[in-house]
Amino acid sequence: MEKAKIFVTHIYLGKYLEKLKDKYEVVIWPGKDIGREDLLSGVKGAVGIISLLTEKIDAEVMDAAGPQLKAIGNYAVGFDNIDVAAATKRGICVTNTPGVLTESVAELVITFTLVLFRRVVEGDRFVRAGKYKGWEPDLLLGTGVKDKVMGIVGLGRIGRWTARMARALGMRVVYHNRHRDEEFEEEYDVTYHTLDQLLEMADVVSLSVPLNLETKHLISERELKLMKPTAVLINTARGPIVDEKALIKALKEKWIAGAGLDVYEDEAQVPEELRNLSNTVLTPHTASATIEARIAMARIVVDNMADAIEDKQPSCLVNPDVWKQKID
Ligand code: GLV
Ligand code: GLV
């Protein structure tokens, strides 16, 4: 019998797919940036697609694959690149990789916090430019983080781990979330506030919500104006959660003190204005880029793909409705 095909959109993942190769014909796109046409032809006849967050997996891709398509395994925790409703309608399982990149992403939030408050990147540029001529009492004065307020927007796994680390640094922690978690509040001494209250009181505003219709431009001009002029904004979630034009204005006009950004509104475009500002620290969507996270993400994708194809409920199913349809 011919082996069923799994199409993988990026060469990097090839080394992690041994477990699938025994049973399936694993077809790996041999390059890095698969174009739309190659994606549409590559998925043809596949029962499974392993995709990256940079690829738009919409109804057209699903239909190009064909009616045998059973699963889409996204190599990311975020899945805003996938038309989940279209998948559910077609009976296709969509899976993501939660839980294993939590610490990696939260660590970058804390890194941004410290790097911004202590002006590490500015200091590095200063030294490299040969400007360091000797100790001065007011050279590159920053601020400490102890007793400052960490404001976490979105208390999921990443938000929680960020809260715990921030508490360990002696910060006060406030959060906003769709649901309150009173047990967590008590255990870690964190307090719940409305988004507006949080923006007004936080010294660091860190975003850890998924991108969806409700969170697009959650932070725009009005919200940036509510923030303190000494506060910084950190976005390790998804670019479009922040209105980037408004953010540039806020940074230029000093409504806020700085920003740590790992994601951008139209990746991989990073506006020159953002790059030219000295009060930004910018990373190339690498919040989950630790070896530990990448390996664990691959393991989850592989296990979920195998389960979905073999009609076992995958543990990281993002559209459980699809499973109810199967059972009904
Ligand atoms: C990274 O951005 C992810 O969603 O895993
Ligand atoms: C993502 O893993 C989150 O729940 O924050």
Description of the structure:
This protein is α/β, with parallel strands linked by helices and 328 residues long. It folds into 2 domains: 132 residues, Rossmann fold; 181 residues, Rossmann fold (3-Layer(aba) Sandwich), CATH 3.40.50.720. The strands form 2 sheets. It has a 7-stranded parallel sheet with strand order 8-7-6-9-10-11-12, sandwiched between helices. A 5-stranded parallel sheet has the order 2-1-3-4-5. Helix 7 links the parallel strand 6 and strand 7. The radius of gyration is 22 Å and the shape is globular. The relative contact order is 0.14. The mean pLDDT is 96.
Which key phrases capture this entry?
alpha/beta; single chain; Rossmann fold; 15% strand; 14 helices; five-stranded parallel beta sheet; 328 residues; binds glyoxylic acid; 2 domains; globular; 12 strands; seven-stranded parallel beta sheet
Secondary-structure map:
Layout: E1 5-8, H1 18-23, E2 25-28, H2 36-42, E3 46-51, H3 59-65, E4 71-74, H4 84-89, E5 93-95, H5 102-117, H6 120-128, E6 149-153, H7 157-168, E7 172-176, H8 182-188, E8 190-192, H9 195-201, E9 204-207, H10 221-226, E10 232-235, H11 244-252, E11 258-261, H12 272-276, E12 280-282, H13 291-309, H14 320-327
Parallel strand pairs: 1-2, 1-3, 3-4, 4-5, 6-7, 6-9, 7-8, 9-10, 10-11, 11-12
Bound molecules: glyoxylic acid (2 copies).
In short:
It is built from 14 helices and 12 strands.
Global Rg: 22 Å
Runs with pLDDT <50, length 5+?
none
In spatial order, strands of the major sheet run 8-7-6-9-10-11-12
Question: Which sheet architecture does the biggest sheet show?
Answer: 7 strands, parallel
Q: Which fold name fills CATH's third level, the topology of the largest domain? A: Rossmann fold
Assembly state: single chain
- Please, how many domains? 2
Q: Report the span from N to C terminus.
A: 30 Å
| CATH H-level superfamily of the largest domain | NAD(P)-binding Rossmann-like Domain
The small-molecule ligands in this entry are: glyoxylic acid
Mean residue pLDDT: 96
**Strand tally:** 12
